Queue: 2 jobs
Job 1
Amino acid sequence: MQDLELKSANKSLSELGINNTAEVMWNLTPAELVEHALFNNEAVLTDTGALMADTGAFTGRSPKDRFVVKDAKTADSVWWGDINIPFEEEKFDALHQKMVKFLTDKKLYVREAYAGADPNYRLNLKVVNTLAWQNLFCYNMFLRPTSEELKNFESDFTIICAPEFEADPEVDGTRQKNFAIINLSKRMILIGGTAYAGEMKKGIFSVLNFILPHEKGVLSMHCSANVGQDGDTAIFFGLSGTGKTTLSADPNRGLIGDDEHGWNETSIFNFEGGCYAKVIDLTREKEPEIWDAIKFGAIVENTRFYEGSRTVDYTNNTVTENTRTAYPIHHIKNAIEPSLAGIPKNIFFLTADAFGVIPPISKLNKSQAMYHFISGYTAKVAGTEVGVTEPKTTFSACFGAAFLPLHPTKYAELFGEKMEKHQVNVWLINTGWTGGPYGIGSRMKLKYTRAMITAALEGRLDNVGFRKHSVFGVGIPESCPNVPDEVLSPRATWDDKEAYDKKARELGAAFIANFEKYKDFATEDILAGSPNL
Ligand code: ATP
Ligand code: MN
């Protein structure tokens, strides 16, 4: 039995300015954290042994309350704007001191972990939590040092996360009571006023998106990744809800990671040690790997039980559509260890096109690959407003602009270099609507999307004919194993062909309008990938 005293020997938070008078618990095991979470009334148990927690008022990240400290290090390197909102150094220091004071008499859970499965690019972390379940989230989501490594562990970046601590916007310089502030010089993230644990995960992702491309020449990517039995790596880029997690969990391939990766000279490596999967409408039939991962040690967030039971009702969206589970990657049977593999042979851009225009699978040439990478398109279904059925286009550079501290062209340049250097197939996959837009058509069947990806990975589309899409110019395969031919052509699935053509031109025009802002960067070669009206 490891006891608390032993685990925390020689460990102190004083270097963070935290001189805590209450209990500070270092690197508790999942079982201990579950006990604490239950004892503290932070969470309850489900009948699979998973811990179920609510994240409170925030059931997603709050991008408008996410700041980056503007100082000598970042002033000229960070891409300032709505995504990277500047925060004053002095305000950060004052807020830090205020938080430290707040934490003095609180029970704290501290976790030492790291991000980056490649030892050359690893970032050692120290996370200070007030909530046991959030510390378990960090155990699940970050990489776990061995007990030997923990003995002399030196952290290089700190997260202080205290959901109960609220800022005073007028004094502290925040927009609201909640905040997530990244300080790249002090190497610290402060989070308060929100219990959405994803802020910690995406905070560290943003940090790596600064450090790796800017300081180490490594491309950081918002993508999932898996590897076949022959060692062929595939990566899946896509905005939230487009299928990165779902489609990377493939019983025939080793899972590298579900959300954040680096691409260095020789490999693709996971930043994380766990997966954070959406669970709305989850069924064992459609997503057995994820279903089976929700066992003891896993966390489910913002879900509800069937009445009178401890069985999670995954159809229940009364708290949010964004219900989630966080589990360590070894809960997926075929996850590989360590989480890295060779240069990708196939790259998939996932889009959930709610207009039903983009083909369910198409092949991109190099220009189109660059163009679509920079565009980062998806379309969200209409909000909850009654009567609003028109989907909304979303363009998010590099399929993850929300997490990019540098200008998107920095990532695009690195991506372009990799494309030049390696022979990679690039595919555009529409996991969204078919047979018409949202409201008329229906979502592409998961089994078809899986079959298309499998066919691409197995080289079974190498010898079929391709037709050019009239607007996007991308290559649509004429046939695909285990997929009916008519599903492959979006136009064929629409009853009203004219309506399809009109919508396709409208979407093409939206791409072109969005791309205006990259015109200084866009070479002729990249522009050759643009839609043709
Ligand atoms: P995030 O960045 O927020 O983690 P993600 O890209 O990982 O998002 P997923 O968690 O994989 O997205 O979510 C995709 C959702 O869409 C899942 O709930 C999945 O069941 C559902 N879905 C329905 N049809 C499809 C399809 N054809 N392909 C992929 N996913 C589908
Ligand atoms: Mn995901």
Job 2
Amino acid sequence: MKRIAVMISGKGSNLQSLIDHIADGDLEAEIALVVSNRADAFGIERAKRAGIDVAVMPLEVVETGGGDRSAYDRKLADLVAAADPDLVVLAGWMLILGTDFLDRFPNRVINLHPAMPGAFPGTKAIARAYEAFQRGEIKRTGVMVHYVIPEVDAGPVVTMEPVPIYPDDTVDDLEERVHLVEHNLIVAAVDMVLRTLP
Ligand code: GRF
């Protein structure tokens, strides 16, 4: 059984989707570890309820020791590598990972981003897409899963799916629609990538 490590920073609804699809037999994988950079992330609770090992590594662990980001990335990579994952899945992980982390898992780190490739990199991508729609700049948004490179929300695309925006939508309507698409796309993407691994 292929092992995945899931990295989160918040609610963990995409983690939950992975947990549920594995439990239903739709996804052949085992979540070996859930890592959060925030101790108050609700996703931690979801992992514990599913009996999955959890680790919390706030950025402060190195900052207080005077360490820099690369020190954090190395420490984080050691933690994740100890779980021996075939694939690392960033599902709402909100810190940028550098080469000190990525080089430890070459072509084995994927990220979920609630926008189409090249669009709205960074945070609040759904709200920014909504505003761009209101200004008439875009007709739709989307969701993508991509391999991670040391650049925000960029890297070769694994899969993507457009998401329509309707004139009478509120931003909450759009958020809900995007998250629904995410919950299925993250499962499909993990399945696709795991099938490519030896
Ligand atoms: C998702 O919209 C993801 O695309 C973005 O952060 C959000 C995390 O949601 N990077 P959740 O924590 O999985 O509910």
